[in-house]
Design brief:
Elements lengths: L1 H18 L6 H4 L41 E9 L10 E5 L25 E5 L5 E7 L10 E8 L2 E10 L9 H4 L3 H6 L1 E2 L2 E3 L2 E5 L2 E2 L1
Parallel strand pairs: 1-9, 1-10, 6-7
Antiparallel strand pairs: 1-4, 2-3, 2-5, 5-6, 8-9
């Protein structure tokens, strides 16, 4: 199953790359499979996570202070290529704090990790396939452009590991993982911030 999924991603990604972003209609663009990406070395195991692993990474239960950084709401819909929403699926995100420190002992800078930042969180999609997180805008980690790591699960089965980026960030052009994607794939995982009802927001729909 995992091999078939990877083959579909490669095939569809190649087709989209040949067509070009400008020639893709809105309906076709919505069907682009979200590109997979490396998990990276700092995926926090359950033992590393805080007891509070909800979808609000800015506020840890029991702590007075909020995390440092630019807070925003990340939302979107999980769906199939035909637009079918996927309910009751788990989405995880993890990222470094505002100073580029990961909540992971293998990161030598982890001793300075922002103790008010959750670093890892999860949400479960509703009946419409919707998910939402409250977190901080990703910051530069040495050697990488700002990014947020993402995993999607159907029960215990992992469907996707990917990364979200900041649209138009100057470091994107120098990032090896970002540059492996086609323009359409990069657009599918690039966050564009705007002012919404909850403050600063970004929407990324995930297609698996």
């Amino acid at each position: 199953m995992k091999q078939n999924t990877k083959s579909r991603r490669k095939l569809l990604g190649g087709i989209v790359g040949l067509m070009g972003v400008s020639s893709i209609g809105a309906r076709a663009a919505a069907a682009v499979l979200t590109p997979s990406a490396a998990e990276g070395p700092y995926y926090p195991t359950p033992a590393m996570r805080t007891p509070d692993t909800d979808n609000d990474l800015v506020k840890i239960r029991g702590r007075v202070e909020d995390a440092g950084g630019e807070v925003f709401t990340l939302r979107g819909k999980l769906m199939r290529t035909n637009g079918q929403p996927l309910a009751r699926h788990r989405i995880e995100i993890w990222q470094c704090d505002m100073d580029g420190n990961y909540m992971h002992p293998r990161d030598r800078r982890s001793v300075n990790f922002d103790q008010a930042f959750q670093g890892f969180g999860h949400d479960v999609t509703d009946n419409g396939g919707n998910y939402v997180f409250r977190t901080i805008k990703p910051t530069i980690y040495p050697g990488r452009t700002p990014h947020i790591h993402v995993k999607v699960f159907d029960g215990s089965r992992e469907l996707l590991t990917t990364q979200f980026y900041i649209k138009g960030h100057p470091n994107n052009s120098r990032d090896g993982l970002f540059n492996r994607m086609s323009r359409a794939e990069a657009a599918a995982v690039s966050m564009e911030f705007s002012l919404g009802a909850t403050g600063t927001e970004a929407t990324i729909n995930v297609v698996v």
